[in-house]
Amino acid sequence: MTLEIGALAPEFALEGIDGRSYSLREALPTGPTLLLFFKANCSACELAFPYMNRLASVYSDGWQLWAVAQEPPDRAREYAGRYSMRYPVLPDTLDYNVSKQYDPPAAPTFFLVGPDGRVAFSSHGFSKDDLNEMSRLIAERLGVEPQVVAPPDDGQPAFRPG
User: Fold this and answer.
1) Using CB atoms within 10 A of its CB, is residue 54 exposed (0-12), middle (13-18) or buried (19+)?
2) Number of Cβ atoms within 10 Å of the Cβ of 20
3) The CATH fold of domain 38-143
4) Is residue 104 left, alpha or beta, with left meaning phi > 0 and alpha meaning psi from -120 to 50?
């Protein structure tokens, strides 16, 4: 069963495609962490990543964005390069232990984990409304003005199921 809002997010550590280790417990004291579970063959993920890149550039400090790849490291690395991901990409391939704990119902699935370790927001599939809500929640936690990261008139659909 996927994690619900208010649930305690399971602790995990994964090695990124950059060779560094990433631990949720160590990240949370620095601010919220947005976990994005994705697969390389997911068309809704392809729609989401340009907006994730925009989100990462709009709010550069005080929070984390981690892309959890349900792919082997080499495929995750190639995908990250194709979509210009400048944030940690974490392959979850040893029996998909992290994915099993979070149980994302589709790809992509997002979990915004607050500094208290609880899920503050979750979404699956591609939804501009949800992307803008994540932007608002991150801005609120950072004490800055929220930015629209997924404008309605940019030529992309408003929604695509994962």
Assistant:
1) middle
2) 10
3) Glutaredoxin (3.40.30)
4) beta
| CA–CA separation, 60 and 40 (whole Å) | 25
152, two tokens:
């309605």
101: nearest Cα among 21, 160, 162, 35:
35
Name the residue with tokens 């892309």: 67
Cβ density class 97-136: b for 16+ within 10 Å, e for less: ebbeebebebbbbbbbbbeeeebbbbbbbbbbebbbbbbb
| Residue 139: CB atoms within 10 Å | 16
Distance CA 101, CA 114 (A): 17
CA distance 46 to 7: 28
Per-residue pLDDT of the chain (162 residues; tens, 9 = 90+): 889 999 999 999 999 999 999 999 999 999 999 999 999 999 999 999 999 999 999 998 999 999 999 999 999 999 999 999 999 999 998 899 999 999 999 999 999 999 999 999 999 999 999 999 999 999 999 999 999 999 999 999 999 999
Residue type, 43: S
What's the pTM value of the predicted model, to 2 decimals? 0.97
Q: Where are the domains of the chain?
A: 38-143
